[in-house]
Design brief:
Layout lengths: L1 E6 L4 H9 L8 E7 L5 H8 L3 E4 L9 H14 L4 E4 L8 H6 L4 E5 L11 H8 L3 E8 L9 E8 L6 H31 L1
Parallel strand pairs: 1-2, 1-4, 2-3, 4-5
Antiparallel strand pairs: 5-6, 6-7
Helix pairs in contact: 1-6
Bound molecules: 5-O-phosphono-beta-D-ribofuranosylamine.
């Protein structure tokens, strides 16, 4: 199944997915990396690894989010993309794009949803004094970080943890979790097609 990865920055989850896709039994072929920021550092890595990239700055579109997303959608379809992995994509999608890709788009969030939706999840977890934290891969629905959960990874919050230490611990799990979640959902899709 041809898939795209959406990034806005470093793209470490993208890197982990691309690496995982080297396995012969991986159910997705990543054919495109999309970014809303032409300066996203992950784009260089993607190009250097032979991936096609499509960077479309969202700023010139101002409030017209849909116009921006329609161009991205056209690029996706032009490349035969059938599945989307959002990975550190820092834009709230319009209901239009979510609807276009209903059941074909997943996201990774650095918290144990439904806890800590939104931003700054590690700081908030420390603030809340939770002893367990982690990451979630979920289907994308119109509510931000609201979609049905696919898989989660848990890490302990340790004495003296800073947000950075916690983020690092979670990120390592994200890299493992995302590839596992893609295998999980695409294997199921593949089987239902059998
Ligand atoms: C990660 O914590 C991910 O969970 C969140 O954004 C962060 C960016 O990671 N969505 P990267 O760009 O994949 O390194």
């Amino acid at each position: 199944i041809k898939a795209a990865i959406f990034i806005s920055g470093r793209g470490s989850n993208m890197m982990a997915l691309v690496e995982a896709a080297k396995a012969p039994d991986f159910p997705a072929e990543f054919v495109l990396v999309v970014s809303n920021d032409p300066h996203a550092s992950g784009l260089e890595w993607a190009a250097a690894h032979g991936l096609k990239t499509f960077a479309l700055d969202h700023k010139p579109y101002g409030k017209d989010r849909e116009a921006h997303e329609r161009l991205i959608d056209a690029e996706l379809r032009g490349n035969g993309v059938e599945f989307i992995c959002l990975a550190g994509y820092m834009r709230v999608l319009t209901p239009w794009l979510v609807q276009q890709w209903e059941g074909k788009m997943i996201n990774i969030h650095p918290a144990l949803l439904p806890d800590f939706k939104g931003l700054h999840t590690h700081e908030r977890a420390l603030e809340a004094g939770v002893i367990e934290h982690g990451a979630t891969v979920h289907w994308v629905s119109s509510g931000v970080d609201e979609g049905e959960i696919i898989a989660q990874a848990r890490v302990p919050v340790l004495e003296g943890d800073t947000a950075d230490m916690l983020a690092t611990r979670v990120l390592a799990e994200e890299h493992r979790l995302y590839a596992q979640a893609v295998r999980q959902v695409l294997a199921e899709k593949f089987l239902t097609k059998m």
